[in-house]
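Action item from last week, closing it out:
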Amino acid sequence: MISWIQTTFQKHTKFFLLFLLIVITIPFVFTIGAAPGIGQAGHKTLEQEFFGYNLGNEQQARRIMSDGSFSAQLRGAYQASGAQVQQYALSRVAGLALADQLSLPQPTEKEVSAFIAQLPAFKNEQGNFDQQAYQRLADSLKGNPQFSVADATRVLREDARLDALSKVVSGPGYVLASDVAEQLKRIETSWTLAVASLDYATFEPNIAVTDEVLQKYFDDNSFRYEVPARPRLSAVEFKNADFTPANAPTEEEMRTFYNANAARFPVPAYADKKDAPALSLDGQPAATDNFPKVRAQVEAAMKEVAARNLASRAANDFTVALFERKVAANSAELTQFLSAQNRSAAPIAPFTFDAPPADRPWLANYAEPISRLGSERFFSDPLPTPSGYVVLLWNESLPSYKPMFTEVRERVATDYRDGEKRRRFDEQGKSIREKLQAAVKAGQSFADAAAAQKLTAKTYASFTLRQPPQDLPYAAYGSLQTLEAGQVSEMLAESDKGHFVYAAEKKLPDVSPSNPRYAEVRQQLMQYTASANESALLNSLVESELRKSAPATAAQP
């Protein structure tokens, strides 16, 4: 089976290729704990043991993340955030360690084959295994030294073993009959709704603004204008441009990189027929070698990747050396260290995270690592930036203060107008809702009642939440939990609209076991409960293992 995987993994889709480019070419650094210098620094690394791996080693951290990312994509987690993928990657490692502890056997070739066949990434629109989709994967892996066919094979074997572990640790996922009944009501109730909307953007109440009104608003809401404590920082930058290799990669290296990433370098459309490739006997374009046409782009991309990797390594070397030197913040020894490293620390004006410096907007993304900095731990881990990496140095912490009214008058005026407009909009919504409810109770149609309030109603007939209308306002779904037939909901705010939902009809489903959908819904709930049990167990193992190697400084405020 494994040799079959290796020989039949063929071309890959552009989506997976893009994923592999992201995972492989951009260095990944775990930001767990508060130890400085996490990542590789020459032959020196700081230990952060995690089920036999060292998260302080950039190569091992990269492998954990790339394995987890590849696995998540195969399972259909296309929209997962970076934090979710990181948690999943760590949970995979914890699960494999638990499988070893429980002495679960390695999966057989038949078990691996069955596991692959049920992965979402290899299913067609009908939900069946698509051999061609499976075979389209390996061209993106061929010749790639960072994530090869062998790596993909290993991840699939591990995931098949984790699938077996899931059956052991997740439990049966028991659910109550009342849970099944509630879920059936939730997804199988048939609704006919009418929705009318009030536009917030065109709602223009007359709001009088005087200094007396604003002063009172400022006094009542002074906490909103208090400037929080802010750090004064300096930045030591490691720009990719400073690490661009002087020598170009070899032709063989560029060819290998191109073959592994061909979708990244599209060839421009043919300007005229003379540029089009010749046709083969079957009428299809004959195979052409497009590498010469995009050679310059390939070389530039390889240099960019190499420069970013070198900048990452230099930044990690810098933090490890700084950690080992044991210098103090703002000290003469620190100045000497920077000079010896041929580095300068550029001062950054004090800022709050909701208003970062205009030339460094990415600082808003690093509130958590910056908040850990202080006199004891005064430098950050290397942080990615659009142009490379940066190590932030703490200089001092500025206390919070309350500005004078005159300093923030314009902001106060804007906030007051916005708040007053929203308050009056809500009041208008309550008034309209009462009129709509009274009108339909008196026998008037909802459409006519809405028109009387200068609103237009739209009807959504006979649908269930299992197959809802595509254009039903999202806010309307929340009202269905409590709405009964003949009722008009309170105004539901959504973006720049306020929606009124009228339940013209509500038909409850049969919630007894005789309903053909009962067994299916029960099984779905059991699977969900079992999956939640497994996730809770693995997450607890991850947290417990991370605490073992968490540095003492991580507990400081």
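Closing note: The radius of gyration is 30 Å.
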